[in-house]
Amino acid sequence: MNANQKVISAIQSEAGSLSDPSWFERIIEAAGNAKFVLLGESSHGTSEFYTIRAEISKRLIENKGFNCIAVEGDWPSCFTVNRYVKGYAPMNPLDALKDFNRWPTWMWANEEIKQLITWMHDYNQDLKDQSQMAGFYGIDIYSLWESMDEIIKLLESKGAAELEAAKKAFACFEPFHRKPENYAVAAEFYGDACEKELADLLLKIKNKWEETSHFEEESLNLLVNSLVALNAENYYRAMVKGGPDDWNIRDHHMVNALEEVSQFYGENAKVIVWEHNTHIGDARATDMKEAGLVNVGQILREKYGEDQVFALGFGTHSGTVIAAEQWGSEMQVMEVPPALEGSFEDTLQKAGPGDKVLLFTDENKHLFKDSFGHRAIGVVYNPEYEQYGNYVPTKISQRYDGFVFLEKTHSLNPLNIPVRSQ
User: Distance of CA 42 to CAs 32, 276, 314, 345, 379, Å?
Assistant: First the structure.
């Protein structure tokens, strides 16, 4: 029996069905004791990935004491959603999603997220203890200017002594007209970096605000926006140099942001994370390791221990997806071709029809230790060329604690929020 056939046999003996309530319960039980539950996706434009993660998240919030959902999105726009779900400001779910106007808008401004945040809002409204309300946060790094705007707005509203220091720090960026690429080139090649000013500002804010105002989470909002500004500045400079640094800065930042959110909720905080498989699946089980790349899943496992992190990967055999042909282009519904011969998704399909769930344990991990190509689709996608760059060599049972396979999937349902001009 060849290696592929052995894995097919292992899938047939170990896999369950997502439609089987007992298997859904097994996912919740396997994840429920972790501090961080990482829910992946193999594309940023697949409806089922969002809806299944939403159902898992609801159960974890309702029954396992999870405090919030943190996503691969910008902090300021996600904080608008947080204000909605916690009732800090009167708005409807569409209003709460209008700030997702940076390309690619469809990642969070979609019907699937609208339904989830409506549920979160209603769930929170039924709680008597405000501290038990479930939050919604963005942990990505791209909102440099938006985060600086939020810092100024917050400090102005409080009449804070740090306002002048913030204005001075941000004035350093004014010549670059909100274009990070212009700033990055000037900083890297001409020495016009603003890093020291941002680092000094973050220290001042952290020293004074970390344990102060909890009114509508002002201290958390100020602190994470400051963290975004500092790390985004470093990230954009690293992009100019090339190599693994920009990726690693981004994933370390996402862990930093997760830790600030976790600290806000207290010692027993439990956080659900929604990100692409490439961020939540341990990089050490892929070829990312040889490239010098780390990711959120690896960092959290190393820092908190594997028993405190539960990573659930997602994949599909075929279907449709929302993506674009190049960065900044119009989104479109694209066909996802059948998985490449010999890939993990192809192997799952050959194990028999239907969706499947695998949970990896000490008893069965060795059955899935071989490396397989594992499909990854980003916001930019060209199906006709996917065999040349969309498959990541992966040892599945080392990368994840479980895996959800969907035989045929469908594209997200975007809200068509207009993309703002930069």
Answer: 23, 6, 6, 11, 11
Query: Based on the structure, what is the number of domains in the chain?
Result: 1
The CA distance from 222 to 215, in Å, is 12
Tens digit of each residue's pLDDT (9 = 90 or more) over 98-140: 999 999 999 999 999 999 999 999 999 989 788 889 999 999 9
Q: Is residue 25 part of a domain?
A: no
Spatial neighbors of 135 by CB under 8 A, at least 6 apart, are 67, 68, 69, 82, 85, 86, 217, 261, 265
Q: Give Cα separations from 259 to 235, 271, 306, 309 (angstroms).
A: 19, 10, 16, 13
Asked if the structure places residue 189 within a domain, the reply is yes
CA distances to 128, 205, 209, 218 from 213, rounded to whole Å, are: 21, 12, 7, 6
Query: What are the distances in angstroms from CA 358 to CA 2, 135, 170, 313?
Result: 21, 29, 49, 10
Summarize pLDDT for 175-194 with one digit per residue, the tens. 887 887 778 777 766 566 77
Contact call for residues 60 and 32 (beta carbons, < 8 A)? yes
Does residue 74 sit within a domain? no
How is residue 248 written in tokens? 């690693």
Range of the domain at 215: 144-243+260-267
Question: Residue 57's pLDDT band (boundaries 50, 70, 90)?
Answer: very high
The pTM (predicted TM-score) of the whole model is 0.95
